[in-house]
Design brief:
The structure is a homodimer. Chain A is an alpha/beta fold. Helices cover 32% and strands 28% of the residues of chain A.
Chain lengths: 236, 236
């Protein structure tokens, strides 16, 4: 099964841009009349029948909608500091999208080596990962913000978890998830240099629970994947 | 803390080869008299005092041994089919080493796209990952073998899990781990084209339990990481 990305237009049409259409027509040799599966990132799986089909753009008629295709029992907002090496951060983005998250927030910590971050590439990578793993719900990629700003903006009613390295009272993430029935989880992962004590104090004050990710010393991107997979594991 | 790799020599000496010594001397400017931490891959953390130190090779005196540094409650043998794209497989090797496994077996499935596999690069990658994550126990990388051969050679008393995609009666890996108190786990992950029914039948006959890795459609390398992290999660 192949999943194409486009948007809902007027009058029950589904529209594909030039890039997607070129792939559809030139590589996969689709033509008018073909029925294909499509997503617009909202979570719905569309079945559409191609009407006009060219490498410059295509239009299709929506013939079916499955609103339950990507329904998940949990929601994850993953805030993680961009790593110095962009490739590692992008691998992480791909992996967590395959597993299933709702939003990715690049946060800049006081000790972050990378202080600026451009989201454009990550959005393309997550779209590609969603299509490949047949996910119709595309994770949102937020614009970067400081860790402290993120902490202030986190919704009150989520289960909020901060994983930091320096000494402190922490539950394992598994225990923290076991103790809570809240399916909305916010995960906050620090940079290679760890969160600062000030950032951790602010998080705890805002209701974040301190967690550790087991005895192994994990890279930032591995820690993020580990945390997401802990949630996924609970609900599998 | 930096971890250096070498081997135990005669008379309580610890020896470093040219490559390691060059890094030690030229980059980190170590000299005779310095105390450093070292590993030989056995699991022991050595504290050694440099005696002779040159870019061509170094020798140190062992002054301390910590046998518990890398003690883990579980053992994992991870057998996974090499992916068509080598980089993905190597990235997986790095991640599972950070988390902690005991051996990696490249297995060739009937439906594998990649039928040959050279282990040399992977060994270097796992060593680098072990050093970076301060693991003194280096996972073994076995020479490739067929899936059927691997199934025959698996020890009887481990908890053996096979994750395949086609329909069948399966527990989630979390449930399979919950039901067992066996800390020795063998994980078998198939190629992009899945295991063949013949391979799955052979595995089940040899005592493997059929598991799934949740509702998401995971790439081979992501499935391997997910399975390893499920074990890690249980014991964290």
């Amino acid at each position: 099964m192949e999943l194409f990305y486009g948007r809902v237009g007027d009058e029950n049409l589904f529209l594909f841009d030039a890039e997607e259409s070129a792939h559809m027509v030139k590589v996969l040799r689709h033509k008018a009349g073909d029925r294909i599966q499509a997503m617009d990132g909202s979570g719905i799986l569309y079945t559409v029948e191609l009407q006009e089909c060219s490498p410059k753009g295509s239009a299709a008629r929506i013939v079916g909608e499955d609103k339950d295709w990507d329904r998940r029992e949990y929601k994850i907002e993953l805030a993680v500091c961009p790593t110095k090496n962009n490739e590692r951060y992008e691998w992480m983005g791909e992996k967590v999208t395959e597993v299933g998250i709702d939003s990715l927030v690049p946060v800049i910590g006081e000790r972050s080596e990378r202080k600026v971050y451009k989201t454009e590439r990550m959005r393309r990578i997550l779209l590609s990962a969603a299509k490949q793993s047949l996910k119709t719900k595309l994770p949102q990629v937020m614009e970067p913000m400081s860790v402290l700003e993120f902490i202030e903006r986190t919704p009150k009613n989520a289960l909020k978890l901060i994983a930091y390295c320096f000494e402190g009272e922490k539950l394992s993430i598994r225990e923290a998830l076991e103790k809570s029935s809240n399916p909305e989880v916010v995960i906050l992962i620090g940079p290679e240099g760890d969160f600062s004590p000030k950032e951790v104090a602010a998080a705890l004050k805002a209701g974040f629970k301190a967690v550790h990710l087991g005895p192994s010393r994990l890279r930032t991107e591995t820690a993020a994947i580990c945390a997401v997979m802990s949630v996924y594991n609970k609900y599998m």
